From TrEMBL:
Bilayer-crossing regions: 12-32, 52-73
Cleaved signal peptide residues: none
Protein name, entry field: Inner membrane protein YqaA
Record bears the keyword Membrane: yes
Natural source organism: Paracidovorax wautersii
InterPro entries the record matches: DedA_domain, VTT_dom
Chain ranges of the VTT domain: 52-150
Keywords noted in UniProt: Membrane, Transmembrane, Transmembrane helix
Length: 156
């Protein structure tokens, strides 16, 4: 098992396979898995400053595709959302109503920690239009990567 992990880590190491690593990590971190992709983007940009903008672009695409996967998982669980809506507390009902009111624009907040990834799944549950949701996800995630990476590069 340890040899397999070492091989995987060597294959995903930043200096050798930087952009593919950033893509995989950013995709997985956009799903409901509890991980962050900012360290991978920052690490690549710190090791190779000329890769700053390609790393941000690849991370944005990977993270947006992960959010789109969440949307499709939520879309597939639409019956569960309807069942939940009928048994939900008033605060949950208000949250769903808020999301329905703002529509796809609410996906701008998909970059937020803790609530951002589930937000994309709920957008699918509510059957908000797919492509506008993806567009707003991409905008929010791009802005997060730009600001977070540039801020980390200034500090470190």
């Amino acid at each position: 098992m340890q040899a397999w992990i070492d091989t995987l880590l060597n294959w995903l190491s930043l200096p050798e396979y930087g952009l593919s690593t950033v893509f995989v990590v950013s995709f997985l971190s956009a799903t409901l898995l509890p991980m962050g992709s900012e360290p991978a983007v920052f690490g690549l940009a710190k090791l190779n400053p000329s890769m700053l903008w390609p790393a941000i672009a690849v991370a944005t695409v990977g993270n947006t595709l992960g959010g789109a996967l969440n949307w499709w998982m939520g879309y597939g669980a639409h019956k569960a959302a309807d069942k939940y809506r009928h048994t939900a507390s008033s605060s949950h009902t208000r949250a769903l109503a808020w999301l329905e009111r703002f529509g796809p624009k609410a996906c701008l907040l998909s970059w937020l920690p803790i609530v951002g990834d589930p937000l994309t799944a709920v957008a699918g549950w509510l059957r908000l239009p797919f492509w506008p949701c993806v567009a707003y996800m991409a905008i929010g995630k791009l802005l997060r990567y730009v600001f977070m990476t540039l801020a980390l590069l200034q500090v470190f």
